Each structure stands twice: as structure tokens, then as C-alpha cells.
Amino acid sequence: MDEHTLRVLEFDKVRTMLLRFCGSSLGRGEVERLGPDKDPDQIKMCLEETTQMRRLLTETERLPFAGLRDITGPLEQIHRQGRPPEPEVFRDIYGVLVVARDFIRLFGALAAETYPRLRTLGEQLYDLHGLYDLIDLYIDARNVIRTESSERLSSIRRAIEQCEVRIRQRVERYLQNKTVRKALMEPRFALRDGRCVLPVRLEHKGSVQGILHDTSHSGSTVYIEPTELVQLGNELSERMAEEEKEETRLLWELTLQVRDEETQIHHNLEILARIELTWAKACMADTYDMVAPQMTDDRALSITQGCHPLLLDMDGPAVPLSLRVGEDFDTLVVTGPNTGGKTVAVKTTGLIALMAHCGMHVPAATPTVIPYLSGIWADIGDEQSIEQSLSTFSAHVSRIIAILKHADAKSLVLMDEFGSGTDPAEGAALAEAILDKLAERSAAVIVTTHIGDLKSYAYSRARAENASMEFDVASLKPTYRLSIGQPGASNAITIAARLGIDSEVTGVARTLLERDVSEATDLIHQMQESRSAIENDREATAKARKEITKLKKEQERLVREVRTKEKMLSDEAERMIDEIFNSAIDSIAAPLNQLKAGPAAVADQAQRLETKLREQFDHTPLARRRQELISGLHKNDYVYVPRFGKALRVTRVDKKRRRLHLTADNLPVEVDFDDVSAVPPGQ
Questions:
Q1: Is 629 within 8 Å of 641 (Cβ atoms)?
Q2: Burial of 489 (0-12, 13-18, 19+ CB in 10 A)
Q3: Helices vs. strands in the chain: H and E counts, helices first
Q4: Are 443 and 301 a contacting pair, CB within 8 Å?
Q5: Model-level pTM?
Q6: Interacting residues of 372 by C-beta distance below 8 A, sequence separation 6+
Q7: Mind giving me the DSSP string for 169-226?
Q8: pLDDT, tens digit, for every residue of 244-289?
């Protein structure tokens, strides 16, 4: 999108609002780079991510962003020659990798049908557990290399501790010497360049034999390492050098591991930045009760009760803006007095369109429809340039040249104070020619103007419409409401009269005005009546369409309820049939068993009766479904057992005995085929 447009519409202030909801340097950097996209698929995807993230807000107030930061700079350090990065650099990398791991787990646990885009973001992250485990193994949370990182480091540090203990013991014995204590500025030792020294008064420096390492600023104290500590000091220095060498080796090992995973780390940074940006969008939308715009491939733009984003923090409600263009007209000419809200209306339209193309929810009501735009072009305000020695008119012309060069049928063009800065008659003629050229391109155009001749422009063009910002003449205050279908008046004479200008002067002014515009006024009044009638019909049609949609949805809801009840009744009937057959078989099971134990003829008849009953039972709907379930069961599948009230795992299927062997809380359970059913959804 055009950088000039972003500047004059003050999109940077929208970014500033969004920054409030970012906690990390990574997310803030992504917000500062945020700009509108032209790719419909990308815009749709970003909007879906914002909507799903906002839905997630209802389930959790926090996401695992702790530890997230922009580590692009630290990653660059791993390529610097000479020495590896410091431990804190690796802990920063560790923090980012842990955040990636946490988001993989969080988004992976979300329902796929409710959060498909967030799950996709989680799937795009790499879980580099080998690397962050290694970093945590080597470096602790205080940015100190752990002693247990290597056996050699552990051995060296033990030697250092032992050496320090011997030095401390030697010093303590040394300090017990009365002659030495008398020579000291204070009875303690200090460290200079890793060496243990004593603070000796200058006048007593001969009392302590050793190496002079330093002198105080005042010169009254000298720091001497006693001779008997020199050997121990040398040993300590050697051990500390060995420690530094081993620590450097371990840091190089981490450096090489990070280099191996560098591509995946950079990829994770991109995804995590997108996640935090989406979180900020969702939080901002939720805070200001914004709505998801409906994006469309059509040309029609429609804003319902929109609000300028910068007015959202103001005390008291802002007057909402409802505006449309690109459906029954392509050019909207907005007129009205100064301070009436025309510029705010144009900026509100532009910012809402920009926010939608950034995948953001917008400060408006539903339905707000925004077309996918190839460009948004704006010429707003007094852009006089001292540096370029351009007048206001010249600056506007330069901007319009750029607009005419790029605008097409997928463009939104916004022009404020159109035709101003020059002779009104010439300005009007030039403005009409420019609007005609943009109309040839089928661009959606919204212009504000004070030029009276442009009020009649819309009445002579098929795809143009007038609009006005309403003004309360009685109170001399604007209402900030946009009225489509009629031009506005500047009310200059009326306002002047109410402010006290002589009535004779205002009377002459009215006469001159009426003489110049009487014919045009009559035409405008006639057209206004026609336009008002058309607008009323359009609103009635929209209201009727909305009511029809509401009734259709209610009808669909009732149908769903009926079908649900029908399914419930059917299932209940099948369960009752199942229970009746089971009860019948159970009630005659004992007599049948007795008969089967009798004479052969009686036993055969009893067996045939039992088989016939079983066949009848197996043909009930519920029994058929159960049979289908049993025939497809395998080991480790799950079935639902009503008497236990939960799903159990199958360990064996005994089709000959019609029995299932299951596991319940690690205990074996055996049930009949007739005692189980399919696992209900969600269990």
C-alpha cells in the first residue's frame, strides 16, 4: 500500500495503540512493521487468526509469552570470530525456544474445528528440545555456566575452592600478627586483578613484605600481596585460567549447536512474532469491542456505525459513521460546513479499510463489508511543502497525478477539500474532470469539498451520489452525522448572521446567492426528493431482507430441533426394544435350559425356540449396529460399557462365546456383546 496514504491517514497512531498490547521486543518490532496486505488469501488467514485468538481470550487471560524477546542480534553474535557469545545470549535463546515449545503444546491441545488457524501456527513451530535442554544443562538462570557441565570444569572449580580456602586461612593467620595489623588501614584483605592483597598504610609499607599491586586514589594506602601468598596466588590464577578455558570450550560447543539449528530458530522467531502480533490484535479488538469485517471480492464497501480508532479513548461516545460506496454508486461527494466532521469521516473510512487489510478487527458494527483492494490512495489536508517550494494546490496536484497513474477498479480513493487552493470555477472544472477519469477506471471514490458547483455533479452522473455532514443551525454545532443522498450547505451566511453581522449585509448576501443558485437549487430540491424516496425504499428493502434472513435462521433452528428430537425418540425406542428383547430372553432362559435338558424331542424344540428368539433380537436396529461394532473390533480398541459409565479398552474378542475381555483401571473385566455400545462422541 501507498506510504503517503499511511502517513496522512495517521496509521502510525493505530500501530501505537496496538503496541500497548505487546509485551516483548519481538512483538513490538512486528507491530512497528505492520502494514496492509494485498493478497486476499493472506488477509483472510490473518483475520481468521485474529478471530480465533480473540475466542481464545474467553478461555485464558494469558499466553506463555514469558521469556520471549527478539534474539536476532544475539543470533548474529554466533558468527563473530574470536570468541563465542556470553552465557546470557544462550539463556535468551533458551527462553525463546521454551516459548516455542509451550505454544506447540498449547495450540496442539486446541479443538481443530474451533481453532484450525491457531493449530496450524503451532504445527509450524519447531520443538528444538535437544538444543534448549543442552543450554539449560550448561547455563543456569543466573547466566552462570553450571559446574556439572563437564567433569573437567567440576574438577577445576573444586581445585579453585580448595586454593581459596588455603589463601583465606593463610591470610587469617597473617592478620593475627600484631605488627601486620598495626600496619593495615583496616584488618581485612582485598582483591586486585585476582590477587589477594592487604591495604597497608603508606608509612608502614615496609612492615609487610611482598608485591605492591596498587595504590589508593589519595595515595595513603598501598595494596601489597604478602610474599607467602604469592605462590598460592599463582596457583589460583592458573586454576582460574583453566576454568576460563574450559568455560570457553563449553560455550563454543553451544555455539556450534545453535549454528546447526539457526534456520529453525529464525523460523520460530517469525512464527512467534506473528502469534504475539495476533494476540495484540485480539486484545485490542476485545478492549474496544471491535468486529471482524466481512471481506469480499465484490467492489462494494459498507461501514456500519464506524468510529475513528483515535476517538475510542475519548471520554463520551463518538458519533458513529455509516457509509457505503461501490454498490449503487462509485463516487460519493461529501459537503458541509467546516469542523463538520468531513475529514474525520474520510480518515475513518480509510483507517477501517487499512485495518481490515492488516488482518485486524475494526471499530464498527456488523455488517461492515470491505472489498479486497489493490490500493488505498489518499490526498488529505494542507500538504504545503516549504522544502520543495510547493503551494497547497501544487501539492494536491502532485498527489492527484500519482493517484490517476495507479487507481483502478480495485482501488479506494480518498480526497479531502477536493478542488481547493485555486480559483473556485477552475477548481470545480478540474475536479469534475478528475472524478470523470476515476469513474472511467471504476474506482471507489470519496471526496469532501466546499465547492458549490460539485454539489450538482452527482446529479448528472449515473454512478455518483451526494452526501452531507449534518449541521444544527440553531445551536451552530455540527452533529457529525453523514446523510447520503443530499448535498450539504456551508451555512456561512446563517452562521455569520447569528454571530452578529449586520442584517443588511447578510440580506444582500442572500440575494446575491439566490440569484446565482436559484435554478440549481430547484433542480437539487427535485433530485433530493427523488433520492430520498429511493433511499427510503433501499432502507425498507434492507430491513425486509434482514427480517427474511432472521426468519430463515429461525426456521433452520426449528428444523434442527425437530430432527434432534426425532433422533432422540428413535434412539430411545431402539433402546426400549433392545431392553424388552433382553428381558424376554432372560425371563425364559431358565425354563429353556430345563427343557433342553429333557427328552431329545423337547430339547430340540427348545433349542429351535431359543435360536429363533436370538435371530429376532439380532434383527433389531440397535442389535444390528452392535453387531457391526463387534465385527470391526480389534485389540486396544475402546467400547462404551453403560453399567460402568465409561469407555474401556478391549484386550480380547471371544466371538465364539460372544464375550469381550476389557481393562477397567488396570483390572480385567469380561462382558457380553449385548452389554456394550460405540463410544459416544467426545469421550
A1: no
A2: middle
A3: 19, 18
A4: no
A5: 0.69
A6: 38, 40, 43, 295, 296, 297, 357, 410
A7: HHHHHHHT-HHHHHHBSSS--EEETTEEEEEEEGGGGGGS-EEEEEE-TTSSEEEEEE
A8: 999 999 999 999 999 999 999 999 999 999 999 999 999 999 999 9
